[in-house]
């Protein structure tokens, strides 16, 4: 597991006893691009990616809210490497359009991750619409917690003139303590089989976000990467509070992790 950021001092925030390590996956999603000097670099949904495609703002939000460290898991999960983290995030798993040889989720890894959650781990699963992610294999893991990502698109947004098509109210939803209205674009809906419960539902009754309690741990799932820099950097119209929602989600994940210790 690669450590990619020096943590904000938890001591200065009075959170030393509760500080957690947060890990983002860079194995199931391992997109690369060429740099100007011809080298190949990883990008997309990474703490170190400060462009529209990255998670740098989300990472900073974790640190500001008491996380001890941000790490990146560049290999398949094992009991050994998962023991080093408290919150594990898997986002937009690759299909053949993203990589000529994707690392697909399989039963062995799914069960291992489920065992980690059962023992107290906190898991955030962020899907995507089927055209942009491998949902078939991802659902091997999701099904462990009583839900699966569907092969559809909800909150479909054509362009910047139709932002409201991606709007969804979070008012009155316990997880979202400060944000009242958020923007999620072109997400996969989520079907519940058992255990999981809906958290956010569209106007036509489709689940955009669900949660599940599993043993000592917890799972939060949403059908889109959603909190990457493009939608948390202030570009959206002010009526959409994705920046506040990022804080709400981060605090929920960290609090769930602290309760298991």
What does this structure look like?
The structure is a single chain. This protein has 261 residues and is of the alpha/beta class. It has helices at 56-64, 79-82, 107-118, 135-142, 242-259, and strands at 2-5, 21-25, 31-34, 40-43, 69-73, 87-91, 122-126, 147-149, 167-169, 181-183, 190-192, 197-201, 207-214, 217-222. The protein has one domain (2-259): 3-Layer(aba) Sandwich (Rossmann fold), CATH 3.40.50. The chain has an eight-stranded mixed sheet, with helices on both faces. Strands 3-4 form a two-stranded antiparallel ribbon. A two-stranded antiparallel sheet has the order 8-11. The two termini are 21 Å apart. The model is unreliable at 5-17 (pLDDT under 50).
What share of residues is helical?
Answer: 10-25%
Shape: globular
Work out the radius of gyration. Answer: 17 Å
Class from secondary-structure proportions: alpha/beta
Quickly name the level 1 CATH class. Answer: Alpha Beta
Q: Which CATH-level-2 architecture?
A: 3-Layer(aba) Sandwich
Mean pLDDT: 92
Q: Name the CATH superfamily classification.
A: Class I glutamine amidotransferase (GATase) domain
Q: Name the beta content range.
A: 15-25%
Q: Which strand order does the major sheet show?
A: 1-5-2-6-7-14-13-12
Low-pLDDT runs: 5-17
Enter the CATH topology name.
Rossmann fold
- The total tally of domains equals 1
How many β-strands, per DSSP?
Answer: 14
| End-to-end gap | 21 Å
Total of DSSP H or I helical runs spanning 4+ residues: 5
Order of helices and strands: EEEEHEHEHEHEEEEEEEH
């Amino acid at each position: 597991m690669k450590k990619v950021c020096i943590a904000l001092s938890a001591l200065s925030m009075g959170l030393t006893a509760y500080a957690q390590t947060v890990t983002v996956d860079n194995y199931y999603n391992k997109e690369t691009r060429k740099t100007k000097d011809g080298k190949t670099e990883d990008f997309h949904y990474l703490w170190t990616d400060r462009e529209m495609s990255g998670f740098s703002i989300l990472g900073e939000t974790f640190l500001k809210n008491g996380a001890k460290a941000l790490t990146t898991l560049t290999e398949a999960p094992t009991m050994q490497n998962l023991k080093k983290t408290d919150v594990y995030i898997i986002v937009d798993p690759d299909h053949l359009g993203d990589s000529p040889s994707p690392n697909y989720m399989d039963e062995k890894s799914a069960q291992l991750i489920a065992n980690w959650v059962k023992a107290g781990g906190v898991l955030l699963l962020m899907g995507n619409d089927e055209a942009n992610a491998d949902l078939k294999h991802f659902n091997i893991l999701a099904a462990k917690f009583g839900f699966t990502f569907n092969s559809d698109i909800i909150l479909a947004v054509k362009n910047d003139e139709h932002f409201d098509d991606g709007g969804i109210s979070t008012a009155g939803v316990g997880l979202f303590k400060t944000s009242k209205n958020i923007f999620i674009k072109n997400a996969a809906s989520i079907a519940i089989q058992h255990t999981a419960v809906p958290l956010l539902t569209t106007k036509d009754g489709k689940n955009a976000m669900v949660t599940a309690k599993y043993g000592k741990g917890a799972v939060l799932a949403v059908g889109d990467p959603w909190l990457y820099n493009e939608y948390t950097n202030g570009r959206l119209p002010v009526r959409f509070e994705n920046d506040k929602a990022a804080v709400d989600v981060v605090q929920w994940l960290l609090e769930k992790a602290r309760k298991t210790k």
